[in-house]
Amino acid sequence: MASAFGDNPVPKAAAPSRVLLSHTPEQIAAKIRYEKSPKQKLFLLHSWLGFHLALLLATVLLTGTIAVVSDEIDWLFHPEMRVQPGDTKVSWGELEKAVRAAAPNDALRTLQRGEADYFAYRASLLTPSGVRYFLHVDQWTGEVTGRTHPLTVQRFFRDLHRYLFTPSIISLPIVCSMGLVMLLSLYTGLKTAGRLRVAAFRLRTHQGLRVFLGDFHKVVAIWSLWFLVLIAVTGLWYLAEFGGAIAGKRFEPPRTGLSTERIEEFGSVIPRISTNEIIRRAEAAIPDWEPSAIFYPSAPGRPMMVWGRWIDPFVRDRANRVSLDPMDGSIIQISRSTENGVVAYLNDVADPLHFGDLGESLTIKLIWFLFGLGLCTLSFTGVWLSFKRLKKVSLSTAQLSTTPVLIAAIVFGYAYVQRYLDPGTHHQALAESLQVNGALTIRAVHSYVEEDDSQWIRIRVRHKEGMANFSAATVELANKQSIALKPVFYGPETILQAKLDPSETRAPLTVTSITLVDGAATELELTPPMLIVDSASP
């Protein structure tokens, strides 16, 4: 946002901008103190902020602008996400049934509606090996439309915009502090722009490119005032939210899970109430409320959670939610945006206002997108005007000092993409399954991960009545070695695992005894008929 209100507004003889490239921040501060004209002081600060922080600021503005319409870009790229709206939607229960039929061995984590009626509903699933993916299901017909990768345009640009792919403890404050830079640029620009009523409508097209871009710069800046303030203030709010989280004072109301006593009551299995009944009870808890997402328990202590859209279009869906017991559907917690307090309410309106996600209005998103492009042009044209005025094309010292942040974003971004695209190659060898009491199916697994040459032993437990509720396991091998396993996955199968020491444990593995500990801390001792697991190495 360099020189955000155009060319030099001060007399040419007194213009300080030609020495900007060779001055450090300390020298600039000293120069400002000795300038006699307040307008010259403000213009010098305005130019320095926009020009020297241009690389970082432009990156944040551009990625945020793309993030506004990233869901719609995904919709264009992926035919699996596109549906033809009909007259009546099928029930949530039918949608869940279709998803589970398409992926019977994978854990269903969420099922949520799309941005509009022409978006298919999306289910997030996790494979037993830890690979996440999406299944899309047509809410008008109940048919699964296809599978997509979790690395979407939306996810990529949201994460890049939020923390530049680098550790958030470092980058998130840097990104959010750009809100302060924008407000300072706004204030200094207003004070040095001259007559705003004239500048807001003047575009001189016959006096050269520099004059035209200077006028265009002012026009865009003046008409984008409201949007600049909105983006800057919400960005600073994110910074305050981050600081609160570091200090242990979260802006969101606390979420209630299941009590230890309740988990013990489940015993070895957590049978789950039907999704349609969950939705019915959630709708009864908040009248005039439309559910938009279901979050299924990912561990025994987690409740069922339903988010929804209420009468207030300015809050995000998770502001109004209902948590329920997954076994009997009883209400654990009700959260309403109107009852959570001022701080929580402001926290819930920050996202919709920052990204233009108000209701299901594509028009509002396009308005946000266009004004976001406007802010990007302020940065680009301002830098160009400064380069032309300074008669230099090299980067300044301050600009070079921000490049390590962008270089780190590229390096971490490569690792970020690789993590999504290459989750690892797993080789598994299975033992024959063991049936227990007609309800439990247990299988031992020897797993080999090619990338880090590690070996694991896993116990996969399936209960025919619901989620197997086991918190620990111990495996005895034929060589008298005892191995303790911890749960790592809850879904159609509960998986408990431990890393093997190759120097002590060699395939094939002969399992002579298995002890499972359920939610009630009751031990289930099994003596299988010698489960032999062959080598999992490729």
Structural class by helix and strand composition = alpha+beta
Uncertain segments:
1-21
How would a crystallographer describe the biggest sheet? 10 strands, antiparallel
Q: Count of DSSP helices?
A: 16
In short:
It contains 16 helices and 20 strands.
Can you walk me through this structure?
This protein starts with 24 loop residues before the first helix and ends in a 5-residue tail after the last strand. Residues 1-21 have low confidence and may be disordered. It has 538 residues and is α+β, with helices and mostly antiparallel strands. The protein has helices at 25-34, 38-52, 54-68, 70-77, 92-102, 153-163, 168-176, 178-192, 196-199, 209-223, 225-246, 260-266, 275-285, 342-355, 362-390, 397-421, and strands at 107-112, 121-126, 132-137, 144-148, 269-270, 290-295, 304-309, 321-324, 331-335, 426-430, 434-436, 440-449, 454-463, 467-468, 470-477, 482-489, 494-499, 509-518, 523-526, 531-533. β2 and β3 (132-137) form a beta hairpin. The protein has 16 helices and 20 strands. α3 runs antiparallel to α6 (153-163), α8 runs antiparallel to α11 and α10 packs antiparallel against α15 (362-390). Strands 10, 11, 12, 13, 15, 16, 17, 18, 19 and 20 form a ten-stranded antiparallel sheet that branches.
